[in-house]
Amino acid sequence: MSLQVVSAVSNSSLLQPGFSLLNFDGHVFFFGQKGWPKRSCPTGVFLLDIKQNELKMKPAFFSKDSCYLPPLRYPALCTLRVNAESDEYQYIIHGGKTPNNDLSDKIYVISLVSKNSKKTTFQCVEKDLGGDVPEARYGHTINIVHSRGKSMSVIFGGRSYTPLAQRTTEKWNSVVDCLPSVFLVDFEFGCCTSYILPELQDGLSFHVSVARNDTIYILGGHSLQNNTRSPSLYKLKVDLPLGSPAVTCTILPGGISVSSAIVTQTGDTEFVLVGGYQSDNQKRLVCNTIVLEDDKIEIAERASPDWTPDIKHCKMWFGCDMGKGSVLLGIPGANKQLISDANYFYILRCKGAEEDNEEELTTQSCSQTSTEDPGDSTPFEDSEEFCFSAEANSFDVDDTDTYNEDDEEDESETGYWITCSASCNIDINTWVPFYSTELNKPAMILCSSGAGHWVHAQCMDLSESMLLRLSEANVKYFCNEHVDLNKGLQTPKKVVRLKKQPMKPLRKKTTMKLTTPTKKSFLRRLFE
Hints:
Elements: E1 2-8, E2 20-24, E3 27-31, E4 45-51, E5 54-59, E6 61-62, E7 76-81, E8 89-94, E9 107-115, E10 120-127, E11 130-131, E12 141-147, E13 150-156, E14 159-161, E15 175-177, E16 181-186, E17 191-196, E18 208-212, E19 215-219, E20 222-223, E21 228-229, E22 233-239, E23 246-252, E24 262-265, E25 270-274, E26 277-279, E27 282-283, E28 287-293, E29 296-302, H1 309-313, E30 318-323, E31 326-332, E32 343-349, E33 364-367, E34 444-447, E35 453-456, H2 464-472, H3 483-489, H4 516-527
Parallel strand pairs: 1-5, 6-10, 11-17
Antiparallel strand pairs: 1-32, 2-3, 3-4, 4-5, 7-8, 8-9, 9-10, 12-13, 13-16, 14-15, 16-17, 18-19, 18-33, 19-22, 20-21, 22-23, 24-25, 25-28, 26-27, 28-29, 30-31, 31-32, 34-35
Protein name: V(D)J recombination-activating protein 2
Family: Belongs to the RAG2 family.
GO molecular function: sequence-specific DNA binding; zinc ion binding
C-alpha cells in the first residue's frame, strides 16, 4: 500500500466531507459539492484530472432530456449494468443532503451519453417509485443483488430528521436513526417493498456493505440511540422467485466495530477496508482485507500504509473509493492557511503496480466515507458519510477548460432555490418548469435595488413575453417589493411651466353717485 500527496489547485473548497465519486470508463467524476452549483458548472459534476500530483476539475454536462440533479452529500450509490450482455452500466443515487440541509427521498439514474477530450455529457433520470417508498435519509447504503436471472436494489440504514409531530423548538433539526427495515426496489416496475427482520434490532448508519450475487454483508455502523458501533456482521440473503421475494438475515461472528470506513475493491472477490472511526474521537488506522468466496466471508488484518504525521494527529478525515483499489483521502488543513476551508488530499493505492490491470469487477462495494463539517446546523459525534461503488480509475485527460472557482462570483446568496421574497413559492422538491425557456432550473431576474439581488420570474408574476423583453432590453428591473420604494427615492422630474398670457381686465361698471342736491332737483323735475 502506498500513499501519495495530491495538491488541489484553486478548487479545494469544493472537496468537502460528503462528496461522491463516479467512475465511468476509467475516468473518475466528482459529485456532491458543498453549496449550490455555479454558472461554469450548473450540473455540479466534475471530471477529476490528476496530473503531476495536482488535482484539477473539468465541468461535465447533462443532456437536454435530463432532469435536475441537486448536489447531494452523503447519498447512497451503486452501479447497475444496463443488461447482462453489455459492459455499459449506470449509477443509482438515492437520498442525501441538499445545500439547504434538506433530505432527499428521490432516486436518480445517471448514465454516460458521450465523452471526448473536451466535453463529457451525462443523462440523469429520476425514477418514480411506488409502494413502501423509503423515507428521506442519508448515511445509508444501496446494493444490487442478482437471483434467478432477476436483479433488485437493496436499501438499508441511514439517518433522517425527527418526524414533524415529535419536533420541538430546541431540537427542530435533530436527526434519528432510520428504522432497521430492508427495502427491495424493483427498477423495472418502480415497486418498493419493506421487510422487518428480527435479527436487525437497531438502526445503523455509516456502515459498510459489500454484495456478491444474492448476498449482502453489512459491517460496522453507528447507532445514535445507543451511541455504539456495532461489532456484528450481518448477512442478508435475497431470493427472487416468480412470486414474492424472500429476505433472510443471519448474524455471523468476526465483525469489526467501526463506522465511516471506506471499502475499495482490489480483485474479483477481494476488498480492502481502510479509514473510519473506532470511537467518537479516535480514528481507526488499521486496514483489513475482506474476501468473499461462494457463501462465506473472511476478514483479516493487513499491513497498513505509512501514515504521515498529519494524518496520525488530525481528529477527522474523509474520503471516497476511486475504484481499482485506490482511495481519495482528505484531512482538514492547518488554521494558518490563507483559505480557511482548504484541505490536504492523498491517494492511497492498495494494489501493487503489477496487480493494476483492467480486470472486470463483478462484485460491488458500498461504504459511507466522510465526516460532517462543523458548519452544518446539526452536530454529530460520529462521522457523516455516503455510499459508493465503482470500478477503475485513470487520469489521462486533457487539461483544457479546467474549472477554476476563482473565476466565479459567489452565488451562495443567489442560488436558484433561494427564498427570493416573502411570497416565494419555489420549492426544489415540487418545482416544475413554468416558462418554455426553463429546463431544470427556474428563471431568475436581477432586481437593481441597492446592491442587487436575484428573484424568481415566476414569483414576480412576469409573463413570458415580458421576461424575454427584459432580458433583451438594457433596462433596470425592480421586484415587486422594491418597485414602490424605488419610485419614492427618485428625484422628481423638473416640470417646465407654461408661460401664461395676461388676460385683458374687464371694464368696471360705472355707477352714478347722486348727491343730495341732485336728488332733490331730479325729483322736482319728475313731478313737474
